Amino acid sequence: MADLKDTVAVVTGASRSAGQGIALVLGEAGATVYVTGRSEGTIEETAEAVDARGGRGIPVRCDHTDDAQVRSLFDRVRDESGRLDLLVNNVWGGYEQRQDEPEVPFFGVPFWEQPLWRWEGMFTAGVRAHLLAGRHAAPLLIEHRDERPGLVVNTIAWAFGAYLGNVLYDTAKAATIRLAFGMAEDLRPHRVAAVALAPGHLGVTETTEYIGRAVAALTADPDLMVKTGGLFTAGELAREYGFTDVDGTQPEPFGLPMAG
């Protein structure tokens, strides 16, 4: 397990699934973790679980589409902790079903039948939210880089190469990968890395803590800058860094099969 006891992290969308798993593993490694999300009860529960793992969990209710709330979040990090070492952009939107419209399945429906609010949701509460968090995090991340590098992680869906089954979703996740690449270029002179990271099939091939262990291993890597701008999977990083899932196994890197 990586030693991150001097690390300050922000994990967005940390109330459940991958975000929660990442926050818990960072806590187990000793990090201070700002646990953000829109639901106060669930972020409190995640923060308490971070504490129970040995870290310090700080719940912060934040709508990551709201510039003022995001600015306030990072102002609080500066005031309370004086530094930031890791930003995990995990918050997402656009999955929701609107109550005033006929239900349209997320997968298996062609793009011309998909409601446009899903596009707006994924690009506003997903891609734009990642950019917004990065804008406010960057000034903090580039400070105190005389030790190990800082890091931005954009979580995505499965590793690319195959169609994700929804044009809107596929395009938004591809934009998230490209956003990490662009961030990496701008942050490189300041010894801050940015990567895109894909879990496997959560709950099927691996637990949410597998990607958490990948984030922890990247954060602790003194040679992290060689990876900046890259796209990685939890499975391939497990083999490089030697970590396992909670059951001691190393699930294979997961990707969707190519069509045809």
Please explain how this structure is put together.
- The structure is a single chain.
- The protein is built from 7 helices and 7 strands.
- The chain is an alpha/beta fold.
- It has a single domain, classed as NAD(P)-binding Rossmann-like Domain (Rossmann fold, 3-Layer(aba) Sandwich).
- It has a 7-stranded parallel beta sheet with strand order 3-2-1-4-5-6-7, sandwiched between helices.
- β5, α5 and β6 form a beta-alpha-beta unit.
- α1 runs parallel beside α2, α4 packs parallel to α5 and α6 crosses α7.
- The protein is globular.
- 47% of the residues are buried.
- The mean pLDDT is 92.
Structure in a nutshell:
With 260 residues, the protein is of the alpha/beta class.
Low-confidence stretches: none
Strand order of the largest sheet: 3-2-1-4-5-6-7
Beta-strand level of the residues, as a percent range?
Answer: 5-15%
- Give the N-terminus to C-terminus distance in angstroms: 41 Å
Query: Using DSSP, what is the number of strands?
Result: 7
The mean pLDDT is 92
For the record, the CATH class is: Alpha Beta
Indicate the radius of gyration in whole angstroms: 17 Å
Choose one word for the global shape.
globular
Q: For the report, how would you describe the main beta sheet?
A: 7 strands, parallel
CATH architecture: 3-Layer(aba) Sandwich
Q: Tell me the name of the CATH homologous superfamily.
A: NAD(P)-binding Rossmann-like Domain
Helical residues, percent = 40-55%
- Helix/strand/pairing category: alpha/beta
